[in-house]
Amino acid sequence: MRYAAAFLVLACLAVPVLSQEKTEDGPTSDKAQKTYKDGLEYLHQRRADAALGEFKKADKQDGGHCLACQQKIIKYGIELRDWKAAKAAAEEMVEQAQGAKNVALAHYQFGAVLTHEGMDNHNDELFTRAHDEMLKALAAGMKFPSAVYADGLVLAQLKQDDAAKARFEEFVKLRTESDPDRQRALRYISQPDLARARMAPPFAITTIDGQRVSMDDLAGKVVLLDFWATWCGPCRAALPHMREIAKKFQGQPLVVLSISLDTDEQKWKDFIAKNEMTWLQYRDNGFDAPIAKGFGVHSIPHTFTIDADGVLQDEHIGDAAIEGKLKKLVNRARELQATAKQGQ
Questions:
Q1: What is the DSSP track for 61-99?
Q2: Which residues, in sequence order, are CB contacts of 115 under 8 Å at separation 6+?
Q3: Residue-averaged pLDDT of the chain
Q4: Which pLDDT tens digit goes with each residue over 331-340?
């Protein structure tokens, strides 16, 4: 599985938006501003490695005081596993942060970097440092649910399950019942091992036919997520295969959910009707939309196979023979269902 998928369990560690948080400007010096804009242009071209280099350069040109640069360095440093750059930017943010909101956010972001590096290197020392940063974020006196949740994940990695469960219970009280992250936290409370697994990111959607579906509502079923678009030739070529899978596993504990990246809603709806795509359909409105970003989708068709516990088992870019894997996962889902009935 690609490296990016290994971090989907940490999708919650995206930079949160604190209430009343100001949007920060870019660098102040003319030279740094030009470099920063070059970095943004590289991002537009989907050249994250080149963009990261420009953001690092711009921050240096600005005397290490470009908060916007630092945030970009953290984001793409994590994505590209440039831990040295990401940690340096996070440390700059911590040193320069003023005011409770900014202090909390800076420590949170530093904790997120350390957590990702800890996942990459299986390093408990990094998790311990991440826990310390999350505590500092929470000590800033802000209502900060994301830090509570993230600290629960870090404690789970340290196998401090009682402390992790306490954090998730605290988080549950801070969120509404319909919140996908709250649903996920409830599962972590009942099954702490899942907080250490490579879980599919939580999300909730309303499908084209008006059904509300969340990732954790589908617990107990195998899920095949299919990212595609009407304008994508390989996606159209793979459509008969996806239709065959949906038909073959109909009535079994498997859900096929196609997530379109189309921006034209009517064209998408017309295509679905014309091609009789009768399984679950949702439109995510482009590569930068929430679900596509959460799953790290950069090219399509792109499928993710998720087991009955919500753990990512497989992913493929392009059409692929996946029926054998699906059959095994469906058989296990049936066994879990049978065990659950016996325990009632």
A1: HTTT--HHHHHHHHHHHHHHT-HHHHHHHHHHHHHH--S
A2: 10, 13, 126, 127, 130, 150, 153, 154, 157
A3: 90
A4: 999 998 888 7
